[in-house]
Amino acid sequence: MFSGLKERINFSSKDIDSESFNEKKSNDEKLTNVHFNYDNFDTMDDYEYIAEYADEYNPNGLPIATLEDKSKYRNIKVRPTIAAMLILICEFAERGSYYGTQGILTNFIMRPLPEGSTTGKVMPGHTGNAGALGLGLKDANALVTLLQFLAYVLPLVGGYLADDRLGKFKAIMIGVWVGILSHLLFVIAALPPVIAKGQAALAPTVLAILSLSVCTGFIKANLLPLMLDQYPYRTNVLRREPTGEVVYVDRDGSIGRLTMVFYWSINIGGFLQIATTYSAKRVGYWLAFLCPMLMYCIVVIAMLIIRPHLKQEIPQGSLLKKAILVMKECMKGNFIKRLKNKEFWAYAYPSNMETRGVLAEKISWTEQEVKDYKSTFTQCLMFAYWVIFNLSDTGLGSTLTAQAGAMTTEGIPNDFFNNFNQIAIVVAIPTLDYVIYPLLAKYNLTPKPVIKIFIGFMFGACGSMVSAIIQWRIYETSPCGYYATTCDEPSPLTAWYEIINYGLCALGECFCYTTAYEIAYTRAPDNGKGLVMALFLFNSAISSAISEGISGALYDPNLIKPFAGIAGVGGFFAFLFLIHYWNLDKIMEQEELEREQARLEEEHKLAIHPITSATSTVPFDEDNEAELRSAIQTFSK
User: Which of 294, 297, 290, 293 is nearest to 120 (CA)?
Assistant: First the structure.
């Protein structure tokens, strides 16, 4: 009747009899000559244990590791689960289909059909670019900008619904099915009979753009959090290996590696843009849009396979509703004074509210939830720094393409060079993960998150400065001087200089974007991970709006100033971020400890509850009574 009750109650006990465990440890030590740390868990009286992680070699569960344990024990990172690897495949295919479509959309909308073509391809013996609808640059820019903007705004909807009622998997599947419809509409719009109708093909194109935005909104906010949810441990723990060695399981390092691989898969998928560009030019747009659709089918298949391998997920209700109530409470009284005294959020602690005479039954949140809302709010403020980085990170992308066109390209399309952003990331991430970071860790020089982000911001600022210098050299060497962009004769400078900018910005992304993804997931409460990820992505929409707003100033002879200005502002905000968030790692560690302590206290309460219900509803026999008393005695210890 009460089988397993003792283990459920004693989630943090170190007093359970472990003779068999010690005997096994002794035998393991006799069988191995490797000199590792063989501390006995049973002597770790100051540790809290998590019983749900118990296994053959750790019968009491796993102790929660401390900061000192990281230097005491060998550090290991957990390998990705099958579910995590399938999610990586989904991200690769989804981003590949998105970038493959986006990359050919401008020419499809802007340029007319090439002479003699019915599919949009350039006919043999002719020069020029592929085209179809012939609506001009203005309409093309408007529709492509709409796609980019909505793709970073709608994740707010997808993230909220996933946290509140759907769950991440169901929200992603909504995006998956809408995505199939979107790619099908693109293929229909690119069929020769449809293109032949001229602007009538605009209707399926617009519907395809809108549905692709919805698809991205539901997938992008939830896919990375879903993958990181598959990590087996909720905090850093100590674990005894089959050899008897005690190791430090580094949760932060494991999640950091998963995040970097996730970002790597995004950029691997981005190479499909090269294939779709050449397909449009040499075969036609029906094939150029069909390729992303076929790749997108991988997403559907992988998501259907993945479901049985996922951890069970129960939506807890989005933090947004309750956070609004907490914010209203914090705004009462002299909140400005509390802001100055750093007591703004403490005003909504249930204990403080009860002291002020508020009835406990009218308080629907806990102290830990208030702390979670504070963490979420401060994250949103921190994410604002990425608005500036995004402008440095090829935020003026069309200007860079025009810059390459003003130089000697030697027959290479001027929009080819932006692919070096993906190439640099694909090379840099494995180098950082398997060479640079392990080497730094060997000498105890592992960079803090704030250092990684600072380095990333500085790379972005340096990239903009390089673009300013290149633009100056173009003006100095162009036959048309400071009106080089529209000059018929290019500057003798080689366009290969553009890869310096793309490479520096790519390195910046490897440092600051991957770290931001990790922080967004780690600091967010369980019922707010999708929303927090969406809030981070929303900064790209803000950057796009700013870029659109200043586009009117991007013309000769003033193109040096935007690059130089963004470089200066980016460098300034990089140092400001470094100063402002120097202790970010300590804050995150404290938040994790508080969250884990609150979770253990909740489990403690749940462990006591079954006794009460059992004693009131279950008739005892002698065996049941003896087992219950034994469980209570163990809990008392």
Answer: 290
Is the model's pTM score more than 0.85? no
State the Cα–Cα distance between residues 72 and 157, nearest whole angstrom.
Answer: 45
Residue extents of the structural domains in the chain: 1-45+583-637, 319-375, 384-582
**Does domain 384-582 match CATH 1.20.1250.20?**
yes
Cα distances (Å, whole numbers) of residue 611 to 607, 614, 627: 8, 5, 12
Report the C-alpha gap between 353 and 359 in whole angstroms: 8
Classify 64 as helix, strand or coil.
strand
Nearest to 534 by CA among 521, 551, 515, 525: 521
Place of tokens 């890869």: 499
Cα separation, 406 vs 557, whole angstroms: 13
Question: H or E element: which one contains 500?
Answer: helix 498-523
pLDDT along the chain (637 residues), means of 10: 37 37 42 49 70 85 85 88 92 93 86 85 78 81 84 91 90 96 95 85 92 94 92 89 90 90 90 86 91 95 91 79 86 84 86 82 83 86 92 73 82 75 91 92 89 96 94 91 84 90 93 91 84 88 81 80 92 96 88 77 64 38 46 43
